[in-house]
Amino acid sequence: MSKTWPDNIARKAVLGFKPYSARGGATNALHLDANESPWAPPPVTQTGGFNRYPEQQPAALIARLADLYGVKPAQIMAGRGADEAIEVLLRTFCEAGQDSILTCPPTFGYFETCAAIQGAQTLLAPLRADFSYDGDLIAAEIRSAGRGLKIVFLCSPNNPTGHVIEPNIVTDLCQEFPEILIVIDEAYAEFSSADSFACQINQYPNLVVLRTLSKAYSLAGARMGVAIADPRVINLMLKVLPPYPIARPVEQAVMAALTPAAMPVHEARLKLWKSERTRMAKALSASSYVTKIYPSEANFLLLDIVEDEALLRALGKYQVKIRDFRQTLPGKMRVSIGSPQENDIALSAFGVEVKVVRPARTAEAHRKTKETDIAVRVNLDDAAGTKIDTGIGFYDHMLEALAKHGGFGLVLSCQGDLEIDAHHTIEDCALALGTALSRALGDKAGAGRFGFTMPLLKPLLMPMDETQAQVAIDLSGRPSMTFKGAFPTDHAGDFPAEMCPHFFESLSQTLGASIQIDVEGDNTHHMIEACFKGVGRALAPAFKREGTDIASTKGVL
Ligand code: PMP
């Protein structure tokens, strides 16, 4: 590695010019330095800071992204999607009419497009017939290319094939060619079980990893992606990046989507995404249009297609669009993995018979205040995958019991102001949970509505050692809560006993339910646990869906 790395491979113009200097962000000073407006644009209430230019790299955003990818802030350049990172790499390192990049087709076309725009040549080291990377071929092409080759773009999982690269190909290239940038485009990394190369940035000053928030984090419309690399490489790229690439609303959207409490919800979505990929691969093998499905570690499947025109007509009938690669990859098309319902429509278009099942009643609620940051995801029709973390051990245990006995799946994560006390966390989680459950119930068509012991409309009896809790529930849409019981002590573990009735009061408000509880016992832990289990057992029949009837003479609930 040269002492002047990476200046020795950068474009001369980039080394020569002074970066455009302009203030971004705002301090407490009176800012008359950037010809901005002193007034917020209307509507005045929602546009804090919009009249001021943003920082080139907003510090809080960079810190969050560094944490997300497990690297240091100085190792990150954030821009408008991974696309902008590719553009900036070309503009920083490739001299027009002189330098080149290397790619491994079939792969993401934008590498070559950016090279063409910059006036750089694209050299090719194609994937093998099975779409695996040929490390020897790549190395041989680099050796014969000479000094003008500046960047090798490798994509893993690769778009459009879905294959991942063997890690030793990357590390061998980084070692053998220390003065060439080895760029790994990991736009689809979250869908793969392979480790990210981001953790190897410290070892290899010529390694660059690209990540995006467009796919796994649902932010394609916000435009946010990063390059992760040695700080010296990042500093050069920041000279070329425009002064204000990240609009304030984009920063706000990204920070909201990446709020720590939301991470378990992203994980739950990814799990569903991957299971849908498996289901789609299996189901599509029954389609008469599909002769081969390539294994994929991304959120798409590459397919070999026959009777392509007939398939396109069928897709048109269902208004489903898939990516047609026939011009560059004969007989191949790529289908993205959508939601279960979207995938069912796609399967119908492919002529695959799908068992008509009612979509699972899933919903999310996200609630962020100065006191708590909460994300909840529920599935009323699948109890698997429950994961709870509120920071209060006893409360986690109770919520788990509620979900288990209620027969619903619950992902709930909260970062609350426990340094004050447990009140805000317990109350706000109850409110968010009720909101998510209410959203999942929708119009409550087919739902049982009531929870008690049949047939005499008696409250449900929940025994626990010496304790007995009686519970009755009505998902009437009218919030109310009655609680009878006196706890012998004021806490169970780290959970204040007075918060037990308050939890159910808060839950009833956002769930829109009448909850009645009467508990007797000698042990506070037993009594609180019996209440949560009992309400869970009562919710199970109230949530259970059979048919489509709305259980009310009013016709609405
Ligand atoms: N790399 C690959 C391999 C991609 O498929 C895409 C988008 N299709 C990108 C990068 C660009 O992503 P972004 O939305 O972050 O610009």
What does this structure look like?
There is one protein chain. The protein is about 35% helix and about 20% strand. It has about 550 residues and is α/β, with parallel strands linked by helices. The strands form five sheets. It has a seven-stranded mixed beta sheet, with helices on both faces. Strands 16, 17, 18, 19 and 22 form a five-stranded mixed beta sheet that branches. A four-stranded antiparallel beta sheet has the order 8-9-11-10, covered by helices on one side. The longest helix has 22 residues, at about 265-285. The mean pLDDT is about 95.
- Give the overall shape, derived from the CA principal axes: globular
Cα(first) to Cα(last) distance is 70 Å
Number of helices: 15
User: In the CATH hierarchy, what is the class of the largest domain?
Assistant: Alpha Beta
Q: List the domain count as a whole number.
A: 3
CATH architecture identity of the largest domain: 3-Layer(aba) Sandwich
Helix content: 25-40%
Instruction: Please summarize the sheet with the most strands.
Output: 7 strands, mixed
The hetero molecules present are: 4'-deoxy-4'-aminopyridoxal-5'-phosphate
Let me know the number of strands: 22
With strands numbered from the N-terminus, the spatial order across the biggest sheet is 1-7-6-5-4-2-3
Q: Quick check: average pLDDT?
A: 95
Q: And the CATH topology of the largest domain?
A: Aspartate Aminotransferase, domain 2
Q: What structural class do you assign from the helix and strand content?
A: alpha/beta
> What's the CATH H-level homologous superfamily of the largest domain?
Type I PLP-dependent aspartate aminotransferase-like (Major domain)
Strand content: 15-25%
- Rounded Rg: 28 Å
